[in-house]
Specification:
The chain has 18 helices and twelve strands.
């Protein structure tokens, strides 16, 4: 039986039955080009994830208790663009090898899949979604590993992908309700699954001995801390003594920037002098240069000059991007430290969400998210290594006169070298936006920024108007977003009620990527290039509709 939901003539010849799970077009799926080698357990874009679920349900109906995949000739009949979605097809998503005989895994039958997978994927509704989904994805990954070993098919991207799809199709074929919304929403989590052998189970004797060793180590730690206290105090004193000489070091960092004199700074501030904001590192004033150009001048507190000043100079002096606030110059004189930036007359993003007179449109919110993602993509893939901002939040997103979003405040930024994927450092940032994994372990990765960006995205979509997001408010926000993404609550309960002309499909797509960004573990979060691609598709789709 062919497709019953209409579509392109090239697709109409497909013999699969899509009645129980008809294809619903998604926003932003215009430039899709994926390959099985790009997978990290599942398609990387939500467009191809949605397409795979569409085909998997149809294959499940066709398979019943027999072969999972159909012959190549029949599969080729399904290769045309999907209904009402010309950018998505078997070819553009890299599904070409999902036919019977393409590989060892492609000849599997439904009955070959172990029944424990069905059992562990039948917990939805009886426990929390996260627990049920974790159990299901773990079972699928374990079964894929077992099948690859039995078939001696390890080491091939094609075999692994085909085998994974085979398990998913068999699961749907043996599940009482094919097309379970919970199962469908859970499958993208396969991108974060890892083999169970990475974990070691200890018997009671070994665990007891290990616990005793830990107690001894803790005792030694107390002694070492006491002995080291005096040494730390001596180091602090030395640091204070060296403060006078620090200016030469900072002056070297300023070598690539314009060096303002203290007289130029005072004159610029006297022309305007309006206080724009105040943070933990210093105060920001409006200034005016002799040319008439308005600038933002940050005067750092004396207690922060050796830290925030050096970090901002070192960070911003090496980067240039349209979505990063530009650093014009600095001033190090008479014990005073100033930084001079471009001035963004439309304030910060938090002020716009607080505004009752002017509501950010849907189009503008998507553009702001795209701008922010573009800035992070530039930082995370910088030629010198990943630059982790560490303080992504509403108040650090400034809006230019042309409503372009610009990431600011690099006082906490940290560079990870080309050979480093993480560093252990002091935990700093803004509560509510900080990566939970970073808070607990002090392990800083590029993914820490991804979490903060996810929280910011959820705030922008929901219109939650707060300057300081505490942990309770954060948890309420992320829980509600996960429920909506999982289909447990309607989208309108999360969407900012003041926002009009919202593209629902794009809203759902961006919400889904934001939920992935706020995964508790960094292993479950997408990289910034994937985040940018999804938001960029939504932005281009918004442009096409206007």
């Amino acid at each position: 039986m062919g497709p019953t939901n209409g579509g392109d003539d090239a697709f109409a010849a497909c013999s699969l039955n899509f009645t129980s799970f008809p294809y619903k077009p998604m926003g932003g799926c215009t430039h899709i080009d994926e390959a099985l080698g790009d997978w990290n357990g599942y398609p990387k874009s939500s467009c191809c994830q949605h397409a795979l679920a569409f085909f998997a349900h149809a294959l499940a109906l066709h398979a019943a208790g027999g072969a999972i995949f159909i012959p190549r000739s029949q599969w080729n009949d399904c290769s045309g663009p999907l209904p009402l979605q010309p950018g998505v097809s078997i070819r553009t998503c890299g599904f070409d090898d999902f036919y019977y005989g393409s590989s060892k895994c492609s000849t599997l039958h439904v009955t070959r899949i172990d029944g424990h997978v069905v059992e562990r994927c039948s917990l939805f509704g009886n426990s929390s979604f996260d627990d049920a989904c974790g159990s299901c994805t773990s079972a699928i990954s374990d079964e894929v590993e077992n099948l690859l070993a039995d078939l001696e098919a390890q080491g091939s991207h094609v075999e692994e992908a085909v085998c994974r799809v085979a398990v998913v199709v068999a699961l749907m074929a043996r599940t009482p309700v094919i097309g379970s919304a919970d199962l469908h929403n859970c499958l993208p989590a396969l991108t974060a699954s890892e083999p169970a052998e990475n974990y070691i189970k200890l018997n009671d004797g070994v665990a007891g001995a290990l616990f005793a060793v830990i107690l001894v180590i803790l005792g030694l730690g107390v002694v070492i801390k006491h002995v080291a206290k005096k040494s730390n105090e001596e180091k602090k004193m030395m640091k204070k003594k060296n403060k006078v000489g620090l200016s030469k070091e900072l002056a070297t960092k300023c070598s690539g920037l314009y060096r303002f004199s203290i007289e130029e700074i005072e004159k610029a501030m006297s022309a305007e002098g309006k206080l724009l904001g105040r943070g933990s590192a210093g105060q920001v004033f409006m200034g005016q240069l002799p040319s008439g150009q308005l600038v933002a001048i940050k005067k750092l507190f004396q207690s922060n000059t050796s830290d925030s000043f050096a970090t901002e100079i070192d960070g911003l002096s090496r980067v240039r991007h349209p979505n990063l606030v530009c650093l014009y110059g600095c001033c190090v004189e008479d014990g005073q430290h100033y930084l001079v930036y471009e001035y963004c007359p439309n304030g910060n993003l938090a002020e716009h969400l607080l505004s009752k007179e002017c509501v950010l449109t849907w189009e503008l919110r998507v553009r702001i998210l795209r701008d922010c993602a573009a800035a992070l993509k530039y930082l995370h893939y910088h030629s010198s290594g990943c630059i982790v901002h560490r303080d992504i939040k509403l108040t650090n997103i400034l809006i230019s006169d042309e409503m372009v979003a610009k990431l600011s405040d690099f006082g906490l930024a940290k560079m990870l070298g080309m050979e480093e994927s993480k560093v252990f450092t002091d935990v700093r940032g803004t509560i509510g936006y900080m990566d939970p994994e970073y808070i607990v372990s002090a392990k800083l990765t590029c993914s820490s920024d991804i979490y903060s960006f996810g929280i910011l995205t959820l705030q922008l979509l929901s219109g939650q108007r707060v300057f300081q997001l505490d942990l309770n408010a954060r948890d309420q926000l992320t829980t509600k977003a996960k429920d909506v993404s999982a289909g447990l609550r309607p989208l309108w309960e999360f969407q900012d009620p003041r926002m009009e002309d919202v593209n629902t499909l794009d809203m759902e797509s961006i919400l889904q990527i934001a939920v992935l960004c706020t995964a508790t573990s960094s292993r479950g979060r997408p990289t910034i290039d994937l985040v940018f691609d999804e938001i960029d598709r939504a932005w281009r789709n918004t442009q096409y509709s206007t």
